[in-house]
Predict the structure.
Amino acid sequence: MPMVSRNYEEFEQPQTISGATEFQALRRVRRRTGLRLTLVAVGGFLLYVLLSSFTPGLMNSSVAGHLTLGLALGLGQFVLMAVIARRHVVHMRTHVDPVVRGLGHRLRRLPGENRQRPTGSTTAHRTQGHRTW
Amino acid sequence: MVTAAGVGDRFSLQLTFLLFLAVVVVTLFTALLTAPQRDEIGEFYLGNRTMSPLRNGLAMCGDYISAATLLGSTGLVALNGYDGLLYLGGTAVAWMTVLLLIAEPLHNAGRFTLGDTIALRLPQGQRPVRLALAICTLAVTTLYLVAQLVGSVALLTQFTGEPSALTRTLCVVVIGTIVIVYAAIGGMPGATFIQVVKAVMVISGVTVTAVMVLHHYHWNVDALLGAAADHSGLGTRFLEPGLRYGGSTTSKLDFFSLELAIVLGLAALPHVMMRLLAPRGVNVLRSSVVWAIGLVGLVCLLAGVLGLGATAVVGRETIAGTDRKGDAAVLLLAHALGGGVLTALLTCLAFVTLLAVASGLTLAAASSLAHDLYGEVVRKGRAKETEELLVARLAAVVIGVLGMLLALVSWGANTATLAFLAFAIAASAILPTLVYTLFWRGLTATGAQLSIYGGLLCSVLLVVFSPVVSSTPASLYPDADFAWFPLQNPGIVSIPVGFLLGWLGSLLSGRQETEAYDEFEVRTLVGADQS
């Protein structure tokens, strides 16, 4: 029986990547947009909860028929979620994935491989493949 | 006795039983067929890693939507109108944190459990942290498991009135045994199959009923809202905030505390984390989580419609009269709209939901025990795969039996309270370590342990000294009074405490592993392999 590999040695040396400007930029972009969008989604919802609790007068103002501002904002949360999820996916696809792919290739190429390997076509194929469900 | 009349007649009870039996037989056979062929822990813990995003999303949705959501939250809407709808919103928003912050870094740097991620981040001090995590995982999953099993008794109560001790035991033992078979023999492939089946059933069942409600009011939402307000006996107060949580500033804070725990706790629930590690590619994971958000959002919206519909069609008085917590709302609505057949369908749905969530939880607890506790702490990483797998299967049996015993002892407990405590523990004990591990260079093993044990203790102690346990008529011990903490939900205090302890512990312990962090950070962002 094979022993379980628990030392993760199959992965190449990433230390060389962590100093690269490309990686630092990626790191900043991921953190900034991730935090900002989370703040909008979660903060927005918690703010809505607090508003409902502490300013009922405002939330009870009627928008149309029985629909109050509070109920409308509640529905708005779902719309906001959809918009944020969409923005995140588009952002990741256009700004993050290409950089990650490039870094990933560098990571695997480091132990003295040929640097001129064409990668464009295969990656394009891959993104196509994940669009299906 | 909670139910004098009950919600269903003999016919729908028998139909429920037949439907439930059919689903269980089919899923049990499939679980046996899809069970891991070889003795590989990877397949047992993660299942089929090449599933499509839709199926992964369905499985995530299935893991998340428990019977508490299906019956409890709709009941909350039916009894409390606006406040119930607010609660449903939080249930859906919780997934945003997972999508935006947690899912991809965790997936890139993860293997089977959170303990594996920590082993990469803190190679020196991983074992004590794994032990702490295993204890915490066990606490969260057991609480949630007991909530599901107690829920099955509560569901049976809707039909037969207060069940006798024998019926109660039989119900818990039968459900518990099926859960053990799914988890111990089927492993992740079996659990995934029942999750997908259950998610499809829940989504279609809820959609059909919601369409019937909307059709009843000629697709006029305003008419539905108006009818709900009229039949609530409270007028427009029903559609205004504060019916349940608006009494005092304390209860407003209590509700905020609950929402905080739900929104933040989801990302740290062990069975949800296991699902995040299952897809192989990070692109598939992203699409899966987006599917999960869409499906959970849909179920939450429709649950709101069902809750309002229940009040509009059945009336608030009748719902509160049948079950004080409102758990009967959906079933009463189904009986009014679709007769015995629809009631039986939805009841069967609720039982399958219980079963599926419980098996996911048992599996998560078993993998944490076998992989973190046995494999790494007891055997120090020298266990063979077959050995670890055997331990995982045994652990599933042990946890299932433990859950059954606890459920039989505490069968009268409030399922929602148990589930909320599980969320609070996840958010205050596991989440800080998860966030620090992924994003903070300064975390040390001491800090992680302090935050895990501290968050766990803090949330449990605060609940012990809260109105949940003593001082009010609805408490566990109504006659005693040692409730110096006024809130029923500890999140608002215990979550900051967990984060603070992790930060303090890391600062004070000094010995940092920053070189490991550089390597780890590359892993979280770029991933190990992009296949």
